[in-house]
Amino acid sequence: MVSLTVLAAVIFMAIFGAWLAPQDPFAINPSAVNQGSSAQHWLGTDEFGRDLLSRLLIGIQPTMLVAIGATAIAGVFGSLLGIAGAYGRPWLSFLIMRSVDIMLSFPPILLALLAVGFWESGVLSLAVVIGVLYIPHFARVAHSATLQVTRQEFMEAERAMGASVRRVVFTAILPNILSPLVVQATLTVAAAILLESGLSFLGLGIVPPEPSWGQMIGTARGYLAQNPMYVIWPSLLLALTVLAINVVGDRLRDILDPRLREE
C-alpha cells in the first residue's frame, strides 16, 4: 500500500506537475544561485537560480512518458514475437529466439548508448530506442508462457475444430499469458526509468532546458560542495519511484501466479 501510494503520487506529479509547480521552472535568477531551502524556494535552487521543487515536479513527466511508451512498444512487439516463436514453424522459432538471445547477451545501457548516437535526443526517440531494447525480455516471457499453454487440452480442442491461427493466438493463447506479461511490464517500466535516467545523466537523454531527474543528478554532481541537496532530492525521488514500482510488480507476481498463491 505504501508503494501504491508513492506510485500514485508520482503519476499525479507526472500529469499535474506543471500546475503544481509553485514557480516558473525555467525562470533564471542569477541572484539566487545554488541556494539551500528557504521560504521562497522550499528545496533550494540550481546553478541558474531556478526553483528545484518546480523542476522536480515537471521532471518526472518526460521520464514517465519514455518509460510507458517504451514498455508499450516492447510489450506489443515482444509478445507477438514470443508467441510466434513458440507457436510458429520450427525455422521461424529458431530465427526469432536466437535473435532474442543475441540481443539479451548485451547490456541494455551499451546498446542504448550505441543507438542514441544515431537519433535526435528527445522523448520519442528515447521511447523507441528503449522499447526496442526490451522487446527480447517480453519475447522470452511470452515464449515460455506460450509453450506451457500450447500443451493444454483446450489448445488441442481448438486445433481439432480447425480454428484459424488468429483465433488461436487472440482467444486461446494471449488471454492465458497476460499474467506474466503484466508483471514483466511493471519491471520494464522501472528498468526503462533507470535507463532513461542513466542516458540523461550522461547528457544523451532529455534535452535541456526541459528537466528530467537523471539529467538533474548529472548536472548536480558538479555542485556538491555548493549545494549538496541539489543532487540528493532528485536521487531520492528516483530511488523511491523505482523501488515502489518494483514492489508493486513483485506483489502483482504473487497475486497473479497461482503457484505462489498456494504457498
TrEMBL record:
The keyword Phosphoprotein does not apply. It is a multi-pass membrane protein. Its main location: membrane. GO terms for biological process: transmembrane transport. Residues 60-249 form the ABC transmembrane type-1 domain. It comes from the Bacteria. InterPro entries: BP-dependent_transpt_permease, MetI-like, MetI-like_sf, OppC_N. The keyword Transmembrane applies. The chain crosses the membrane at residues 64-88, 100-119, 125-147, 168-195, 230-249. One of its GO terms (cellular component) is plasma membrane. It is found in: Cell membrane. Keywords: Cell membrane, Membrane, Transmembrane, Transmembrane helix, Transport. Belongs to the binding-protein-dependent transport system permease family. This is ABC transporter permease. It comes from Oryzicola mucosus.
